[in-house]
Amino acid sequence: MAKKLPNSVFTLILTSITVVSWVFYSIYQTFKKPLPVVVPPEIIQPVDPNVGLEVIEKIKNKKHFEEGGFKETIIKTPNPTPKEVSIQNTPTPKTETPSPTIEPVERNEITGEYEIDEE
Asked: C-alpha angle with apex 10: 9 to 12, nearest 5 degrees?
């Protein structure tokens, strides 16, 4: 029958493995550490706190609108004038009726009306 290791020896071996691993990992991190960042002196200089006072005053003096404080504005464009079309009595040729086609429809962003593209 094989003898078991005492608990203290087992703990000592695990602790030693952990310490050695930790040391090697610290050495690895030291070599892989990124180089320090070089910052230009203009960026490091402190900012004057009184520079933006005029801008802050302009912002405070601007008008503030609450939500729902004004109604939606609808801009209507004048309707185009109809053109006169002369209709002549000409015989219509007999042809087959074409099948219906789908035409692209676009919405006018200003008037909100839908327009059919005629190509």
From this structure: 60
Nearest Cα neighbor of 112 from 76, 70, 79 is 76
Asked if 77 and 110 count as a contact pair (C-beta separation under 8 A), the reply is: yes
Cβ atoms 17, 25 nearer than 8 A: no
Torsion angles phi and psi, residue 54, rounded to 5: -65, -40
Max avg pLDDT among 3-7, 40-44, 60-64, 83-87: 40-44
- Residue 105 predicted with pLDDT over 60: yes
Note the pTM of the prediction, 2 decimals. 0.30
Secondary structure class of 5 (helix, strand, coil)? coil
Instruction: Compute the distance between CA of residue 104 and CA of residue 119 in angstroms, rounded to an integer.
Output: 10
Is 116 in a helix, a strand, or coil? strand
The answer to whether 117 touches 103, Cβ cutoff 8 Å, is yes
Distance separating alpha carbons of residues 118 and 99, to the nearest angstrom:
17
